[in-house]
Specification:
It is built from twelve helices and 14 strands. By secondary structure, it is α/β, with parallel strands linked by helices. It has three domains: about 5-80, Winged helix-like DNA-binding domain superfamily/Winged helix DNA-binding domain (Arc Repressor Mutant, subunit A, Orthogonal Bundle); about 80-185 and about 325-350, Rossmann fold (3-Layer(aba) Sandwich); about 185-320, Rossmann fold, CATH 3.40.50. The strands form three sheets. A six-stranded parallel sheet has the order 4-3-5-6-7-13, sandwiched between helices. A six-stranded mixed sheet has the order 9-8-10-11-12-14, with helices on both faces. β8 (about 205-210), α8 and β9 form a beta-alpha-beta unit.
Length: about 350
């Protein structure tokens, strides 16, 4: 005997099937709100309670999510990564210079490799000012199941979240944006560098840092400052120098030309460590002989980019971190957030280590 509850359940399943087909088929765009429960009830000639039951079923499948006071928003849950839907890598213009030596191409490369290891694919996009709507349309057109970004444009990050895409930041973070971030442990890197020189009794320790407004700058300097505090010392403000790619060699030359030349330089950006080496060459100075230095490099690029820059001479200690580990961690978090969109945002730090060249 078919009960009334059975009939209502069947009708709810029928409506859920119809809505699921529209969502999966792309007739209803991800990130948009479905019509109100009342409107859908009229469309399918159902009472609101039965229609609500259908929508809650779609929510359990992570195709939609209920937003109190607004309705049900379509998530990209229909975009199954196992069915070939890619992850979008949204590249910004504020990337920390020199982190992967060849910039966004290398960033895309390591993510491609990590995605391939999971049987997934990745597609790169550039976040251009004023074209956020176009970007979202592109991500929907390829049925991206989530977005990885290094973009520091709050409008872009907010738009990705608002469209329902799971978002994880790659080697960047933004306060109060409510997104996950996977970063180098710059604080630990700075702390290790400061401890190394302080433990060796260095008295004139200089900071040669990037002048960009990125989280890396704060993290690394905070670690250095903590090392000085730990040792009961303060860094001489006159030895704090900030530079960029255009003036890095000039700033390093000025630093190394001082009468009270530093006996140690903390250069926690690869391009600045190489700028210090070039400035030293121009001044007839030698790294390790006339001053010591701690540099910075992506672990995967150490042998190809960092070490050769010092030629036959000694290679100074270097803080390294793994871009491969970062990419794997980013994808793992993205997939976890896709399955559990209600997770609280977290920041994950990829370990940084102080390494010494062994020839």
């Amino acid at each position: 005997m078919t009960t009334r509850a059975d009939k209502l359940g069947h009708r709810a399943d029928t409506v859920a099937t119809a809505l699921r087909s529209e969502i999966v088929g792309g007739k209803v765009r991800t990130g948009t709100l479905l019509p109100s429960v009342r409107a859908l009830a009229r469309r399918y000639s159902l009472d609101a309670k039965t229609l609500w039951r259908a929508l809650k079923g779609l929510e359990s499948e992570r195709l939609v999510v209920a937003e109190p006071g607004r309705g049900f928003r379509v998530l990209p849950g229909a975009n199954d990564p196992l069915a070939g839907c890619p992850v979008a890598l949204v590249l910004g213009d504020a990337s920390d210079p020199g982190q992967l030596e060849s910039g966004s191409n290398a960033l895309l490369s390591v993510l491609h490799a990590a995605a391939g290891a999971r049987g997934l694919s990745a597609v790169g996009f550039r976040a251009e000012p004023g074209k956020t709507g176009q970007l979202l349309d592109q991500l929907r057109s390829i049925r991206a199941f989530g977005a990885v970004t290094d973009c520091l444009d709050a409008q872009v990050v907010d738009a990705l979240r608002g469209a329902g895409f799971p978002v994880v930041m790659f080697d960047m973070s933004m306060e109060a944006r409510g997104v996950d971030a996977v970063m180098q442990d710059g604080y630990r890197g700075g702390l290790l560098a400061a401890r190394y020189f302080l433990g060796r009794g260095k008295q004139r320790i200089a900071w040669l840092g990037d002048d960009g407004r990125t989280p890396h700058r704060l993290d690394r300097f905070a670690g250095v400052a903590a090392g000085f505090f730990e040792a009961g010392r303060e860094m001489d403000a006159s030895f704090r120098v900030e530079a960029n790619r255009a003036n890095g060699v000039e700033k390093a030359r000025e630093l190394l030309s001082r009468g009270d030349r530093p006996d140690a330089v903390i250069a926690l950006w690869s391009y600045l460590a190489l700028a210090a080496k070039r400035a030293a060459d121009e001044l007839g100075l030698a790294v390790e002989r006339d001053f010591e230095m701690v540099g910075w490099s992506v672990a995967e690029n150490y042998a190809a980019h960092y070490r050769p820059a010092f030629g036959a001479g000694p290679v100074p200690p270097c803080v390294t971190w793994s871009a491969r580990t970062m990419a794997q961690t980013v994808l793992a978090r993205l997939l976890e957030r896709r399955e559990h969109p209600g997770l609280e945002p977290v920041t994950v730090r990829i370990p940084a280590e102080l390494n010494f060249d062994r020839g």
